[in-house]
TrEMBL record:
Superkingdom per UniProt: Bacteria
GO molecular function: transferase activity
This protein's name: Protein TusC
InterPro entries, per database record: DsrEFH-like, Sulphur_relay_DsrE/F-like, Sulphur_relay_TusC, Sulphur_relay_TusC/DsrF
A biological process from GO: tRNA processing
Lineage: Bacteria, Pseudomonadati, Pseudomonadota, Gammaproteobacteria, Enterobacterales
UniProt keyword Transferase, yes or no: yes
Matches recorded under PANTHER family: PROTEIN TUSC
GO cellular component terms attached to this protein's record: cytoplasm
Complex formation: Heterohexamer, formed by a dimer of trimers. The hexameric TusBCD complex contains 2 copies each of TusB, TusC and TusD. The TusBCD complex interacts with TusE.
Gene name, Swiss-Prot/TrEMBL: tusC
Statement: the UniProt record of this protein carries the keyword Transferase: yes
Organism per entry: Rahnella contaminans
């Protein structure tokens, strides 16, 4: 089986990239168990709890990254530099358990994947 990495770089609102990436991730989880999920840049906002998309009229977004463990997706990482640049910390409460990694550590991990998809 191929190792597949998903990188989320866009915020949850203003674009459907996060939702499309999550759909692809869930579909891929039926085919392989070796999946890594990386949240970088504005993608770290995908994991913020208590989002209220209706306040900005973003009715189509449903925050479901918290279901990843139900699909046996447990290799989830968040970029420490991205957090710092956005005034967040690795100790923040997220909708998903994530391991904080530096950009260099993420780069090293991504090198072991056969397929890398960015959303």
């Amino acid at each position: 089986m191929k190792k597949v990495a998903f990188i989320f770089t866009q915020g949850p609102h203003g674009s459907s990239a996060g939702r499309e990436g999550l759909d692809a991730l869930l579909a891929t989880s039926a085919l392989t168990e070796d999946i890594g999920v990386f949240f970088m840049a504005d993608g770290v906002f995908q994991l913020m709890p208590a989002q209220q998309p209706e306040k900005i009229l973003a009715r189509n977004y449903i925050a479901t990254f918290g279901v990843l463990p139900l699909y046996d997706v447990d290799q989830c990482f968040i970029c420490t530099e991205s957090l710092k640049a956005r005034g967040l910390s690795a100790g923040h409460e997220w909708v998903l358990d994530v391991e904080p990694l530096s950009v260099a550590e993420i780069r090293d991990r991504l090198a072991s994947y056969d397929v890398v998809m960015t959303f």
